[in-house]
C-alpha cells in the first residue's frame, strides 16, 4: 500500500504530469476564447504543426541528455530538406531520397560530435560554428534558389493522412516511441544518461565517453535528416537561406519545458514530446486568438521560465523530504 502511494506521488509530482495538466488547462482556455480551436480540422492542424519540431526535438534531446546542446539543428534541417527536394526531383525513388537525407544528417551530426567529443570544443561554440558552415553549404548546394516542383507522390508523405491523423504526426509518435525504448531498454541509451549525469564517474566506470557522444550527435543528425525529408514534402517549397532559421530556439524551449536539463542526465523522452505539444497548442491558440506574432516568442520565453521555476520548486521539495526522512 505504501509503495502504491509513493508511486502515485511520484507521478503527480513529475514534470510530465505537470505539463500534461498545463496542456489541458491551456486547451480549455483557448477553446473558450476561440470556437475554432477545438474543431477537428484545427486539432489535425496542430498535429501537423508540431510534427517537424517534435521529430527534431527528440533527436536533439539525445544530445541534451549528455549535457550538450545543438544550435545547428535548423541548418541541418535546411540542408537535408533542400537535398531531399533536389534528389526527388531527379526522379530518384522515395526510399533513396529518405536514406540520402538521413545520411546527410548523420554526416552533420558526425561533424558536431567530432568537434565536441574529439576536439573538446564547448558544444555551444562548436554547434554555433557548424550552424553557419552547414547553412552556407545548403545555400551553395541550391545556388540560393527555391527548390520546388516535387512529385505528388512525394508531397503525400507530408500532406497525407492515415485514420484521420497526419502522416508526419504518426512518424513523430513512432520516433518518440523508438527513442523511449532506446533510453529505457537499450544499453547505449542508459550509457548516454550515465555520461550526462556524471561524466567523471562514467569515465571511471570504463565507459567510452567519446564514442558515446559521437553516437548521440550522429543519431541526432539522422533524426533531423528524416525530419528534413518530411518537411520538404509538407511545405512543397524550400529556401535554404530561411528554412529552420528559428528551429534551434523552439527545440531548446520544448526540451527545457519538458524537464530536460542543460547540464544533462535529467529528463525523459515523454517530457520532450509533451513540451513540443504544449508549445504547439500555445502557438496555435495565440494565432486563432489574433494575438500579434511578435508576442508569440515572448509568451514562449515566459512558458520556459514558468517550467524552470516549477522544476526548481519540485527539486527543493524533494530535497526537503530527503532531509526530513
Automatic annotation (TrEMBL):
Gene Ontology MF: a single term: transmembrane transporter activity
Coarse class of the protein's main subcellular location: membrane
Positions in coiled-coil regions: none
Topology term for the membrane: Multi-pass membrane protein
Bilayer-crossing regions: 12-33, 45-66, 94-117, 124-143, 163-183, 214-232, 238-257, 269-288, 294-316
Entries under InterPro entries matching the protein: ABC_transp_permease
Keyword Membrane: yes
Subcellular localization(s) per the UniProt record: Cell membrane
UniProt keyword list: Cell inner membrane, Cell membrane, Membrane, Transmembrane, Transmembrane helix, Transport
Entry's Gene Ontology cellular component terms: plasma membrane
Domain of life: Bacteria
Subunit structure: The complex is composed of two ATP-binding proteins (LsrA), two transmembrane proteins (LsrC and LsrD) and a solute-binding protein (LsrB).
Role: Part of the ABC transporter complex LsrABCD involved in autoinducer 2 (AI-2) import. Probably responsible for the translocation of the substrate across the membrane.
Protein's recorded name: Autoinducer 2 import system permease protein LsrC
Organism: Diplocloster agilis
